[in-house]
Amino acid sequence: MFRLRGQWIAASAVAVLAACGSDSTTSTVATSTAHGTLVEDPPLRIASLNAVSLSAQLSANATGAQLLQLTGAPACGVDFYYLRFWTLGGAGETTESSGALMVPTGAAPACSGPRPVVLYGHGTWTDKSGNMADIANTSTPSPTNNEDVIVAAMFAAQGYIVVAPNFAGYDISTLGYHPYLDAAQQSGEMIDALTAARTALPNTFASATSDSGKLFITGYSAGAHAAMATQRALEAGGQTVTAAAPMSGPYALEAYGDFVMYGGVFIGSTAFVPLITTSYQHAYGNIYSATTDVYSTTYATGIDTLLPSTTPIDTLFADGKLPETAFFDSTTPVVTVPGNATLSAELTAALAVPSNPANPDTPIFAAGFGNPYLINNSYRVSYVLDAAANPDGALPTPAAGVPLAAVAPTQTLRLGLYKNDMRNGDWAPSSPTLLCGGDQDPTVFFAVNTGVMAAFWSGLPAPLITVLDVNATPAGPFAPVQTAFQQAVAAQLAFYMSPAGGGLSLAQAEELLLPSYHGSVEPFCALGARLFFSQF
Amino acid sequence: MKAFITQALTAAILTFTASLACADEIPDNTFRVGLYSVFFHTSVSPLAGPFIPPGEDLTATVKNVETPYLAYLRKLSTHFTFELALGVPPLTKAYGKGPATLAGTVPFNGQELLTSRWFAPTALIEYVFLDESYALRPYVGVGVNYSMFYNRNITPAGEAIIGGPTRVELSRSVGPAVTGGISYRLPKHWSVMASYSWARVTSHLNAITTDVDRTSSISFGPTTFIVAAGYSF
């Protein structure tokens, strides 16, 4: 009896002792997979830097120090949240995506309370691991091309709440491809990220910081296309866009595509074009029956799943997965237009390796030809025949209003570009818009993109569209931005021409800087965008 | 001379203890109540997982605790006793050990990160020296410790470091335990005792923030000093 009683007492003690209290739990996980749903609320905060620490980290290396000179000293600290949300892929697939929510912190009035939101679309990444929220990732080369640092310093540290999706296909996304330059998907995902961020904001550590209702949209390169498409979608939906500032973007995609297919090969084409064909193949299903329809047999196998990749792009080049520069075949195709020998001869001549010595871009274009090459001549010819039969209003000589092709193209890649060209639908911004870029850009050509959109919208009321060319003679409210850019370029050229930089000639130094020109414009255009936004 | 002193001392102790011995046989069951002082000798592997800055050696220390001690003892024979030792589960606190700040400018080193209650019964078989006629009887024992952690709560400082609300999982531990002590039998079924014990307690920690899982392995290496009073019946 004693034995039983003793055991019972011990067991009771165990039960009583183990039963009290409960464990802490993690974030609430959404059960809905509807697009725009925040997956985990509150989201994970990856880092929290006060203004002093942010300044110190930027000052720790030369690139950061230069950026700091441009952005000015941080007025606020920044909390970096890892946003996860549901969105739709290019073919309407329900998929999870991720991004950054950067929240300004600090006691200064500009750092808490109601703050404006900057919605940012990143540029082309070949690295699948890019994550705008992972500010502590100092890998070289940067998976985000330092865009996370640029927007954090330029906007978040100056009191803007930043929402920056990584986009489907990157980071945790299992989509298997990136809906690159897909206006419908990219705008939808930008808006989904914004919706998720607005859900998350009240539950962050910086809950005293709230959305003021002002919404600024910006983005760089491919992200500028996404930004402009987002502006269009929000305005079409009757939602407020305070102002927008797409930067160095490929907006007039049909014109840009035509320009490239005629021989104006841009730096980066061998990586960017596979991203486009894969994206449009998923969205429309008609770009090719087999990748060999588009790509040479040297590169066709696996090219539809190659990018974005966890393998560095230089390794892909070295491994022969992609050519570094040889976009087109250096052997000129013979174009035959039935019954039109003149046009046949003109097109054949147009597709030759560029050699016009009067055009300063000729060396850039010519570098895009070689063997082994990426694009089949037969595919190039099919595209150019469509362009010749149904020309874009911007090429070869701009027509009044630079309209899209009169009817939808029949060549499927050109049709995809036509659908995603920002002139499609005759949309025009109803909110103030700054178009920023550099007219020497060898990657996203300024004239055929920013220039075409400016011309397309030239009839709009004067204050609505502002064009900022950082290469132009400094003038007007953005003169400090232009001056800063040109001084930075001059300083780099001077360095490479100095004994310490190799003692290059001016032409050699310019050639050396050319591949980085496109990326180098971003901080300056971002400063222009911030100056522009500060007016509203 | 030395041998003589040793023999004399031994004789004196035996005489003393024998003089205090109770003529009655010790009952089979004993309950003890006392104080458990737990001294942690913690070894923590650096926290690992997503978004942990490379090169950061993030570990923790655990603060020593005291808690009431409860035990049930069953006499198995003259020299062998079974003991089930329990403590009122103490609120155990872990503190950050590593860089002053983490994840930017969030304080880390010395911050209270985590609290947990720890239920750790230990079953021991003890060999008790001398026969029951002696009041003062040393003993040694070996057994098994079972440890489970509950009420695992991350503190606000811990949440700030790790990035948000976090579910903490600490695996259960089963490990050997050894003890050594001495009991002193008082009249009328009462006794007092003191012991010093060690147990191997290891646990795998998962700190799950959203679905980001950071992990660490913890060896608590607790030693305990117990003083208690017992009642036999």
Walk me through this protein's architecture.
The complex is a heterodimer of chains A (536) and B (233). Helix content of chain A is 38%, strand content 15%. The N and C termini of chain A lie far apart (85 Å). Chain A has a nine-stranded mixed β-sheet, sandwiched between helices. The longest helix of chain A has 28 residues. Chain B is mainly beta and 233 residues long. Chain B has a single domain, classed as Porin. Helices cover 11% and strands 58% of the residues of chain B. The N terminus of chain B is likely disordered. At the A-B interface, helix 1, strand 3, helix 2 and strand 4 of A face strand 4, strand 11 and strand 12 of B.
Q: What tags apply to this protein structure?
A:
heterodimer, A: about 525 residues, alpha/beta, Rossmann fold, nine-stranded mixed sheet, two-stranded antiparallel sheet, 16 helices, about 40% helix, disordered N terminus, B: about 230 residues, mainly beta, Porin, four-stranded antiparallel sheet, 2 helices
Query: Could you give the count of β-strands of chain A?
Result: 13
Helical percentage of chain B = 10-25%
Percent of residues in beta strands of chain B: over 45%
Can you give the mean pLDDT of chain A?
94
Rg result of chain A? 26 Å
H/E topology pattern of chain A:
HEEEHHEEEHEHEHEHHHEHHEHHEHEHH
Task: Give a short synopsis of this structure.
With 536 residues, chain A is of the alpha/beta class. Chain A is built from 16 helices and 13 strands.
